[in-house]
Amino acid sequence: MPAKNAFYAQSGGVTAVINASAAGVIEATREHPADIGTVYAGANGILGALHEELIDTTAESAETIAALRHTPAGAFGSARYKLKGLEENRAEYERLIEVFRAHDIGYFFYNGGGDSQDTAHKVSQLGEAMGYPVTCIGVPKTVDNDLPVTDTCPGFGSVAKYIAVATREAGLDVASMAETSTRVFILETMGRHAGWIAAASALARERDGDPPHVILLPEVPLDEQRFLDRVRQSVEAFGYCVVVVSEGVKTADGRFLSDQGTRDAFGHVQLGGVAPVVAAMIKNHLGYKYHYAIADYLQRAARHIASATDVEQAHALGRAAVELALAGRNAVMPTIVRGSDSPYRWHIGEVALEAVANREAKMPAEYIDDSGFFVTEAALRYLRPLIAGEDYPPYRDGLPDYARLRGQRVAKRLPAFGT
Amino acid sequence: MPAKNAFYAQSGGVTAVINASAAGVIEATREHPADIGTVYAGANGILGALHEELIDTTAESAETIAALRHTPAGAFGSARYKLKGLEENRAEYERLIEVFRAHDIGYFFYNGGGDSQDTAHKVSQLGEAMGYPVTCIGVPKTVDNDLPVTDTCPGFGSVAKYIAVATREAGLDVASMAETSTRVFILETMGRHAGWIAAASALARERDGDPPHVILLPEVPLDEQRFLDRVRQSVEAFGYCVVVVSEGVKTADGRFLSDQGTRDAFGHVQLGGVAPVVAAMIKNHLGYKYHYAIADYLQRAARHIASATDVEQAHALGRAAVELALAGRNAVMPTIVRGSDSPYRWHIGEVALEAVANREAKMPAEYIDDSGFFVTEAALRYLRPLIAGEDYPPYRDGLPDYARLRGQRVAKRLPAFGT
């Protein structure tokens, strides 16, 4: 009996290292041709399976697959597309199984966050029920660091490093000009529901008085007066103030601070960004000259400054997913298990998909200090190893030389899916 | 007769490599103790001279000075402080000469843009007139790349590299998600008067269809309808559109696009940023999901991704300034002279300060293509070598290990300056 093929898909917001996980999956399967046949990748994630848009990874050279390790974003395309419950979306789940059956796919590696692990879990259940069992293994990924059980999620360490480096560099800039120019600098980070990314900026501080001076976390409702006092104290003490603000910061009544209903001159709702709202507070109440940066996708795409630890873990988790499948495991996800903080030790563990599906890991309360404007030493101990090490991509003509896939499609065998 | 001392000051907006020029100046003087004594650096630039706040660079070890080469921002403090004409600001110019005389300073190295070269030129003239001749040498610096005569300005190559890398990385991110998420990504760059920085994003494009798809330059008044057409064409052809917009883009009637008079719900003027204005256009007229990033200070402080060419030139120009002084030159500035584009060859030239003072170099019209939304091959030929090479800072605990100065002040010898 020839080996079953595999399906690999990327899901949700992409990261600097999700392709490193893809490389791990593909490289590990290539080492076991007797056990796993062709790896098909979904064009645009799970949509690739629904629409039978399969990318034949055997058309990519070993060099190209290796280059995925240093290439950011989703090389096969990712999708924000959530399959809901089996009842509501039964036709879609069945379609997945049909496509898998048509292409002799017996393994499903789903590289994503909590929603994706939920989908992988359901596919595993439905395949069983439909008489076409599929080995479903999750591969964790999310810059938000909000998956439970695993110590961290690939993608987070690199965005954390980016934000810490940016805070240190911009902090030096502001410090050197504050006498005659900008007094308050605001850096807006991602993190709609948890403050992990903003918290990582704290790693930039080496000594008292170093930036960041204030971190605004989604976990702490903003007390405007206390915040303004803190900014003023920082400017008075150090000459300047660096504020790192998570996009998810909320007011005391639970609304996103960025949802201020601001409108432009034509009455259009003003578009996004919590940084300008914070800047306006400072301008209107303290009058300091300010500047702000909104890193947006730059932070999660910044493979050029990726954490070597993160890259290594992303790659190792991709490989581990294949090894779990080869070991006969099903409906599980490999995890990072921390052995110790310093020296940092970690190994790969395993968790049942149903234990991670649709569950969000919050930042522990003991990681936020009493003021609510900074993190604790416990948080720093947790965060520090995650940004350790540099893993530079190769450069050509002054720019990172990222992988380009041939992206060869597999001939379709089924009628179009009628959604 | 003991050697005269030197005064070094940083001026205006800081860069990723202005400290490399400082290292060049200080290292070169240390090699000639018989000719130049102590280098005093101005605390907060020229203000340090006016207020007699002098930093004794001899208190910094050779290792610390060498580390300035890889440290961004202004290690001695910079200032946005322009001395105007000799008539209007005579007292300040005279104060400079008095401070120089009090500390036996015979050399003035001024590291800045056009305004600073003007100041250095005037100090040279006034010293002569006051019977206290000072050798005044400019050291070029500006991310805006707008100094005349010199082929490029230290600081520009690194910000150009940052923007090109960011465009490539964010472009991959958007491309991989466009099917179900963001269609249009907008990156706002610095460049209030010239489009050099935004233009550098074009280096990210390797093949037709690669980002950036549209570049909005201050040199080209925005034609909103043509812009929107171009964005729609890009989304239809490639599935997405990356727009790089210079903060200095203007409307047809000559106003900054960012000055839209937008107000928040409380009637406060909405604060800054051209990216949200462009985003609103796209949202309101095309309806595409958008995201935007505002790099702000991150771009000019990003020493972690500095151009090796830029670092080398910044350092060489600092050294060259000292060599010009030792050769008896006065009121001049060392420049970069380009020998050839490819292979890239350059050497150090020299220009009279009066030929660069207060003159802005514009981006040549032949660098902008007929559409007005992209640059020409001539521009790319010019830009390409400026971002070449990587020059990574050392890292400790996952973060760049930047220099910290002792910053030891020199005892004051004069009464406070009464402005």
UniProtKB/TrEMBL annotation, chains A, B:
Keywords: Cytoplasm, Glycolysis, Kinase, Magnesium, Metal-binding, Transferase. It is found in: Cytoplasm. Catalyzes the phosphorylation of D-fructose 6-phosphate, the first committing step of glycolysis. Uses inorganic phosphate (PPi) as phosphoryl donor instead of ATP like common ATP-dependent phosphofructokinases (ATP-PFKs), which renders the reaction reversible, and can thus function both in glycolysis and gluconeogenesis. Consistently, PPi-PFK can replace the enzymes of both the forward (ATP-PFK) and reverse (fructose-bisphosphatase (FBPase)) reactions. HAMAP family: Phosphofructokinase_II_B2 (MF_01978). Its main location: cytoplasm. Homodimer. Its EC number is 2.7.1.90. Pfam families: PFK. Residues 9-324 form the Phosphofructokinase domain. Pathway: Carbohydrate degradation; glycolysis; D-glyceraldehyde 3-phosphate and glycerone phosphate from D-glucose: step 3/4. Belongs to the phosphofructokinase type A (PFKA) family. PPi-dependent PFK group II subfamily. Clade 'B2' sub-subfamily. Its cofactor is Mg(2+). It comes from the Bacteria. Diphosphate binds at residue 13. It is an enzyme of class 2 (transferase). The record marks 141 as: Important for catalytic activity. This is Pyrophosphate--fructose 6-phosphate 1-phosphotransferase. Non-allosteric. The active site is at residue 144. The record marks 115 as: Important for catalytic activity and substrate specificity. InterPro entries: ATP_PFK, PFKA, Phosphofructokinase_dom, PKF_sf, PPi-PFK. It catalyses: beta-D-fructose 6-phosphate + diphosphate = beta-D-fructose 1,6-bisphosphate + phosphate + H(+). Substrate binds at residues 142-144, 190-192, 247, 297-300. The keyword Flavoprotein does not apply. The gene is pfp.
